[in-house]
Amino acid sequence: MPYSNSPVFTPAQRVQNYRYAIRNIVTHARKLEEQGRTVTYLNIGDPILYGFQPPEELIEANIQALQLGHNGYSPSSGITDAVLAIAEDARKRGIPTSAEDTIITFGASEAADLVCTSMLNPGDEVLCPAPGYPLYNAIIAKLNAREVSYTLDPRHGWLPDPDDIERKITSKTKILVVINPNNPTGEVYSKETLQQFIDIARRHRLLIITDEVYHKLVYDATHIPLASLAGDDVAVITIDSLSKNYMAPGWRTGWMMITNSRLVPDVRQAFIKLADARLCAPMTPQFSIRAAMQLDSTYHDTIVRRLRSQRDTTISMLNSIDGISCNQPEGAFYVMAQIQLADTPFTTDEEFVLKLLEEQQILFVHGSGFGTSAEDGFIRIVYLPGTDVLEDVYTRLATFLKSL
Ligand SMILES: Cc1ncc(COP(=O)(O)O)c(C=O)c1O
What is the distance in A from the centroid of ligand 1 to the CA of 108? Predict the structure, then answer.
């Protein structure tokens, strides 16, 4: 049939349920900007927008790699020195893995995609935290697999309930996703909680994906890598990247590490096949990975000090506003705050977020974009900006709530 002016193609079925609230909501903010209004964006976790930069050592290594002419394709699993450095660091942190079981990817995002694409047939089920980072839901929807949410309960410090997880397991469940520290709740899991995840995976023969892209950004808690507790009979994929832990999201450099790969030899082969077909992750930033793994603690001490102060301002100001409450996050740079929707004219979290944007030009993301119920009134706030910006934002938020 010849082309005409009307649309000829429709999108494939698999993208119909593909949503990513963090970026989708920006369309509304852009419309306000077109009308000449200035918007304060607290929707996306990009540290570079708020004055953070990667460690100097990593930038130097990157520049040097470019100057030395490392501008070709790398091996599809990554350059040897980088996978060796990642595996050495992982073993020091108690994660049993090896360079052969490490694959460098386009950020943690591609690692999640590689694992799910390798493992899931249409109709297979994946247990994901709700609330949780929407990447997993999007990938699962794209594969025509099924996301099954397990609940993180705000009344119990956003912890999972092992019985709830276990009740949701069927013969089709293949993967259990853990995000630690969690985005959007900022919760860091204790050894006991991690052990519960592992016991469930062991009993039901599930593979665990543990997303630890914020493990260096932890305040008063201690981060324990899940794989360090897995023993020798549970297959675990640990996902990590330079994006948040080293504040270099634009370098699109991440990795996955398999623990107990002998339990999943064919799946490991499938990862490599997929990695081969997409050639390689960006080449030059891979040369900064050894510098990242060898960094002393000064860089992270400074960053965590700044983030802690921003978190403290956030918690104390939000909890002092009538009609808002929030828990204290122990990691990452997000907080889920709950609005008493019953005291407002709104029935959903998104209506609240959009009206706040219109009235005060502040952009948060509605909690339902991460899997909470829209009527529960959660919003996710990114507390990356300096305390002066945050104080102004929370003052305007209080004004807005009062005006309702
Ligand atoms: C929990 C979590 N995992 C993965 C990612 C994506 O990381 P990357 O930039 O390394 O793809 C993000 C980004 O916000 C995240 O919050």
Answer: 6
